[in-house]
Amino acid sequence: MKGPADVAVEARLWQLISAAAPVGAFHFSEGLETAVEVGWVTDGESLERWLRGQLHHSLARLDLALILRVMDVWRARDLKAVLHWNVVADACRETREVREQHRHMGHALGRLARALGEPFPDAPLNYAPAFALMAENRCVEGTRAIGGYAFAWCENQVVGAQKLLSLGQLAAQGVLAQVSTGLDGVVATAAACDDTSIGMGIPCVTLASMRHETQYSRLFRS
């Protein structure tokens, strides 16, 4: 049974991944809008495949793996190493709009950290490194931190899909529940990822993002 201190740490993680966190995640679909536009994602089943593919082949080997590394180096207050991994995070964003998204969200999270009086470097960070710093500030254990990050990403994608598809709340929650069953494996992949494997992406997601930059009608910024 969790004691009061454990619950307090969990609550600080929940605050960090909450939809109420002022980072603007709801503005971005990360290529999902184009995937719907061209017919790659048409219903709950295809949405589930889209999310699972990104979780296992992209998110686990980039954002989540980077978060674990940045948490480790920030624990030692090694700012040089933090900035190194931030450069890697930025370099692995394959389109302009996705780079801008992660820079925007990272800057917003930095403003939040400073407003809450948390230690944060006077340097612009991408979202994943900024998240790692705040998670480490809050004494959140690494696998819990990346599990929360992955769930929040899934949730934001599902909420976006509800705006883009004829997907009701019950169906959307069914997709989120099914995708969440695989998060243990996603976290394990991220934990086992070595430095040379960081940065793997999915070509069709990159193409979706590229097409989205010139898409005629858009609800989202990515």
Sequence of secondary-structure elements: HHHHHHHHHHH
The fraction of residues assigned to DSSP E strands is under 5%
N-to-C CA distance? 42 Å
**What is the CATH third-level topology name?**
Urease accessory protein UreF
**The biggest beta sheet, please?**
none
Q: How many domain units?
A: 1
Describe what this molecule looks like in 3D.
The chain is mostly helical and 222 residues long. It has one domain (33-212): Urease accessory protein UreF. It has eleven helices and no strands. It has helices spanning 4-17, 32-37, 44-59, 63-75, 79-91, 96-115, 127-137, 142-164, 169-180, 183-192, 203-212. α4 (63-75) runs antiparallel to α5 and α4 crosses α7. The longest helix has 23 residues, at 142-164. The N and C termini lie far apart (42 Å).
Essential attributes:
222 residues, mainly alpha, Urease accessory protein UreF, 11 helices
Record the SSE blueprint:
Blueprint: H1 4-17, H2 32-37, H3 44-59, H4 63-75, H5 79-91, H6 96-115, H7 127-137, H8 142-164, H9 169-180, H10 183-192, H11 203-212
Helix pairs in contact: 3-8, 3-9, 4-5, 4-7, 4-8, 6-7, 8-9, 8-10
Q: What's a concise summary of this model?
A:
This protein has 222 residues and is mainly α. It is built from eleven helices and no strands. The chain has helices at residues 4-17, 32-37, 44-59, 63-75, 79-91, 96-115, 127-137, 142-164, 169-180, 183-192, 203-212.
